[in-house]
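Hey all, sorry for the wall of text incoming. These are the two entities for the joint prediction.
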Amino acid sequence: MTPLGNAVLPYANPVRLFRHLWAYRDIIRPMTRREIAGRYRGSWLGFGWSFLQPLLMLCVYTFVFSVVFEIRWGMPGEETRSAFAIALFMGLISFYIFSETVNAAPSAVLSNPNLVKRVVFPLEVLPLVRLLGAFVQAFFSLIILLLGMIVVFGAVPWTIVLLPLVWLPLGLFTLGLSYFLASVGVFIRDVGALTSILTTMLLFLSPIFYPLAAVPARFHFIYRLNPVAVFVEEARKVAVWGVLPDWIWLAFAGLFSLSVLIFGFLWFMKSKNAFADVL
Amino acid sequence: MGGAGSGGPGEPVDRERVIAGSGLGKCYTIYQAPVDRLKQSFWRRRKVLYREFWALREASFEIRKGETVGVIGSNGSGKSTLLQLIAGVVRPTEGVLNIRGRVSALLELGAGFNTDCTGRENVFMNGAIMGLSQGEIEDRYDDILRFADIGPFIDQPVKTYSSGMYVRLAFAVAVHVSPDILLVDEALAVGDLRFQQKCIARIREFCERGTVLFVSHDPAVVKELCSRVLWVEGGRIRGDGPPREVVDRYLAYVYEGEKADAARRGSGSPGHRASEDILDGFRPLEAVCRQFGDRRVVIEALRVRSRGGTAGILHSGEPCEISLYCRAAESVDRPVAGFVLRDRLGRELLADNTALLRQDIPPFSKGAGYVLTFHLDSWPNLREDEYSLTVAVADGGLTDHVQCHYVHDALVVRSLPVRMPGALLSVAKTGVSLQEVGGVRA
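and here's what came out:
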């Protein structure tokens, strides 16, 4: 039923990898549904929080960065507060896909010792479920963003249909990193704390609250090394500014993300036999 | 002893092997800190950062299609590890294990449930984990629901379930995935009596068609349900064969210790005793027993046996002896000795003492040792189970005495009935007669 032995190398072939995960769709689907419904379960507003939470955070960020710090995106023509908010929001949506998944990863296996030790369970679905949950949340936020853009700009750029092309490598990268963290988190319990600090640092070190242009050129290399920054910037380009993505970059990002995923997945599969030893 | 020696050369090979283990071993590695496990994989074998614990070793056996195999053994003997290996939850550290067919384990019922999901979602998820397609689960869904019998709770998160409902649903799923091999732990004795009966009936039904491995502490159940028994002790397979033979050896081991099993295996005749010493078969009292008294007389050892039988096992209807080995630290003028037999619930079933029996014991003199024996004519027909024996020696009469040594639950004995008692106990030799006394006149 389940493949025994430590033969993980076949998963270096991405087709095998995706087919492997696809085989568990009947487990992934209900778990993802529960992941989303579980967040606000029992609260009075329920699903409304999915919309309200990002909106409220957006108000605060807009106030702080646009009113207090007076940051400008450098848009052509007159730049309004609402335009600022929309650009900021798009950055946040992309970033949250990354940070929600990655923050949850170190505890994904750690918090499910039952699934490790007592039943035969495909543990590799756990980080994926988090990622899918984050994507669904991002989708709801995107709906708010689209409404906002229609109100503020009166139109939505057609390039937004290219957004999946940017989000897909973001997802692969996030998933690969999550696999790695989920595994290491079992052995080194500090990873959880460290991860949440690092994601918060990345939030401010990515061009989310400010344009990349506002960063002194000699620091740009940091942003070029920060994969999240690149994804955030490209996603905003296609969704808000209506600019075509850099195709060469996109191809490169896709390959890079895929290799991160393969590395993370192989690491996870190789180490998962040892989880039971320490949980 | 080669555990898999059950199949002789002349045996027909029409029944295929479904489980075959050879040289199976499971070593648990215990690490000081979780990070050591990570370091170990870099060190490989050059440096050892763990302590080893072998839960099972050199287990070789094979199980054929359709067999119902009981697995017995003391606590921590490795029988759960054996089942976990077969279930695939635990990987063998050494050896080879081949399994043909789908295994469904009733080991940790509901361990795979997601407590936030509803019962319905868990049924589908569990089914998917077991390798069933969505359609196959839908086909069985109504049966599962009917079997679990939890009504509208099926659409509630399982964390709101009572423990009974939880296990019922888990059991229902596990038996409806049409496994080829069913692993059962006696822990399934949960839920109300009606559900237990339903489970047992279902397992029996499955025994007819499929292969079952059944772990139990209860020799009676094993003897009844199984066609073969594996006895696991100290991480090794100690016995493999017909239920009666293996269970008897196991019981002798439990109540008499290592020596008895060796003797039994060597001689083959259970009644065989090399030297009929008066102190043969005595079990020293364990220090953990709750006890009190002024210790002018100390009870040092006990022996309980049916005539000519194994110590610690009492056969209903047979004469039996309860013997106390005592040593007098001081002289005692009017010694009184007694015993109380209790069941698992602490109910006193049988009690007697020398004063009630009007059997005066001569005074004990300082420094002497005595064996005091109660001869019971016929042991009552008690339900097959374990019972505890409390013993005491006092100084004085029935109403005015000082306890010298009173030991709670000094010895655990097993009672084997000649038949199923209707209530707590019955008289072993009970006859029935019927006389016709003429018709009823209109």
